[in-house]
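anyone seen this seq b4? input:
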Amino acid sequence: MILVTGGAGFIGANFVLDWLSVSDEPVVNLDALTYAGNLENLASLKGDPRHIFVQGDICDRELVDRLFAEHQPRAIVHFAAESHVDRSIHGPGDFVRTNVNGTFTLLEAARGHWMSLEEAGKAAFRFHHVSTDEVYGSLGPNAPAFSETKTYEPNSPYSASKAASDHLVRAWHHTYGLPVTTSNCSNNYGPYHFPEKLIPLMIANALAGKPLPVYGDGQQIRDWLYVTDHCSAIRAVLAKGTPGEVYNVGGWNEKPNIEIVHTLCALLDELKPDPAGSYSRLITYVTDRPGHDRRYAIDARKIERELGWRPAETFETGIRKTVAWYLVNQAWVGHILSGAYREWVDTNYAGR
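predicted toks r here
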């Protein structure tokens, strides 16, 4: 049995689906079902006894202790986090609460559970913490990609809260001996992605004939990782990772945002052409976000060298699968685009 936090969100849900597609080991899935958590992501697991869903808050120590006592998980995979930079600018308190206090609560509960185990159980137990490349700050155009030893330089409330949680995880290993691993991943994309993020936002807006808002000059560079590749990397870390180690997970796909948008427009022109003309006509440049990091790039050689992991998807194969998924799953997108989501879009993009 493993315990997954945030398993109804984008990456968490993909991980649960991926895990149960290759393993019969059950999953206890703890998710608060905030705006980005969606049980529709897990609809294919309805009635599957291997998936035990619990709605709850990772900051609820009593609940987390009960789940450890009841299910005795051999590992915890911690996805649960507030993760959108723009939202962190508008409301940083939620990010500190979930990403810092929530991680602290999980670490303490895991430590209590781990200390109660026999020696063999202690040696086998893992706490895997899923983090982000944004903790490393911003890179110049010719700077080397982020390695695991790169100094932390977070620039947004979101990345600062994730950096804090990374430091807590490290400290619980070095102070208490808790067997932890951490992965810092690049930008994920793929099915079930909440449409506030770049790729699903552009797809949803394009299909609705709405403007495609591009921040600043659109030359912000990100490394893009197909979400199922991220899932396989985490499985590799759980299986073979060394306690106390950090593994950077990337797709070897550095692309500027404006190139991503043009790629999406071209794929939509091919797969669902608009009689009004190319979707690229909808591209609209808007005022950049405050403190927007210019470039992220992941050096993923360590995880390949030590654990034998490398992404299976190229950007070209992964982005085509992603667009095709959104075209087939328009009902899912429609359910997501609720009044609360529209209010958020109005808040973030008004005046830009």
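The mean pLDDT is 93. The first strand starts at residue 2 and ends at 5. kinda curious what u guys think
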